[in-house]
Amino acid sequence: MAAGILGTLVYLLTGGSLVQQQAVMYLHIPDATGLGQDSAVRVDGIDVGKVVGIALSGSNDPNRVVKLTMKVRRSQLPLIPVDSYAQISSESLIGDKFVDITSGTAAARVAAGAEITYKNQPELLKTLDLSQFTAQLRQVDATLADIEQGRNQFGQFMRGDSFYRDLMRRMTELQRGVATAINTTSTVGALLSTDKLHQQVLDFLTNLDLTLAKLQSGQGAAGRLLVDSAQYEQLVAAAQELHRFAERLAGSEYLKSDEAYGNANRLIASLSQRVDEMNASPLLTTTMLYDNLNGAAGELRDAVRDFRQNPKKYLRLKVF
């Protein structure tokens, strides 16, 4: 039982690494400075194992002077393509170094006992453009000088109170606008601070409720139509009667018979002929009738005027 407890404690303390299957892999590097036993081995930033051996390889190749022996979890091998490469990296400029494997894109995967290709990582000072770095430092120094002398907005904010006063002015205008908005004398203020809008909405809903109540109780023409079906039935009967009349009219002999249609056309042609004959008569083509009537009317007008002016002239008494 004690052995079981001890085994459990060992498993918990080691994270189960003692019982996990391990695979050996190799890496040749030019220099092992900063590396040691138990240095971490990572694949794309994930811990997969550790360095278990560091020794001279005996090679004359400056990039293969030191041979590293690594043990990684066998379950991680299917995740490492054969074209992956390794570099020596560190957590920081002065941090511990570790083997950093970057995954490739090949379909094939590495096998146990394989060697990972080493890719030399250039030094920082070799890749740094000193002239560009100097220009950036001068730009930063100029920016700091502008801030110290107040030549930009941030510097003005740091050295003077103009920015603060402008901000306070804007806040005062905003506060004044809010005060104006909530003032009861304005339209917006009246709506916000009083129940006028609420009362208008309430009145509208009350009137709508009363209208619906009247409709439900049968008041008015619309209400009676909803409550009593007699008017609806009358409308339906009238529509049906109109439909039957249209059917009878469509089936009448006048619309179906060509003879009736011909008689109507002949009657219309006769009337048209009579109108043409009347238009062609001398009574309408000459002014003789108009002149005769006009002359008779003039004589009658003169006679009436003369009678009104001298009625005695037309009075004759006969004694028998």
Please tell me the overall pLDDT: 76
What's the Cα radius of gyration?
Answer: 59 Å
Major beta sheet, strand line-up: 1-4-3-2-6-5-7
N/C terminus separation:
180 Å
User: Largest sheet, described in full?
Assistant: 7 strands, mixed
- DSSP helical segment count: 13
Q: What structural class should be given to the helix and strand makeup?
A: alpha/beta
Strand coverage percent: 5-15%
* Poorly predicted runs of 5 or more residues: none
The H/E string reads: HEEEEEEEHHHHHHHHHHHH
Domain tally: 4
The percent range for helix content is: 40-55%
Number of strands: 7
Shape: elongated
Question: Would you kindly provide a written description of the structure presented here, covering whatever features stand out?
Answer:
By secondary structure, the protein is of the alpha/beta class. It has 4 domains: 2-123, no CATH class; 161-193; 195-250, no CATH class; 258-291. The chain is built from 13 helices and 7 strands. The protein has helices at residues 2-14, 124-127, 130-149, 153-159, 162-181, 187-193, 196-217, 220-227, 230-250, 253-256, 258-280, 282-285, 288-309, and strands spanning 22-29, 40-43, 46-56, 66-73, 85-90, 97-102, 117-118. The chain has a 7-stranded mixed beta sheet with strand order 1-4-3-2-6-5-7, with no helix packed on it. Strand 5 and strand 6 form a beta hairpin. Helix 3 crosses helix 4 and helix 7 (196-217) packs across helix 8. The longest helix is centred in the last third of the chain and has 23 residues, at 258-280.
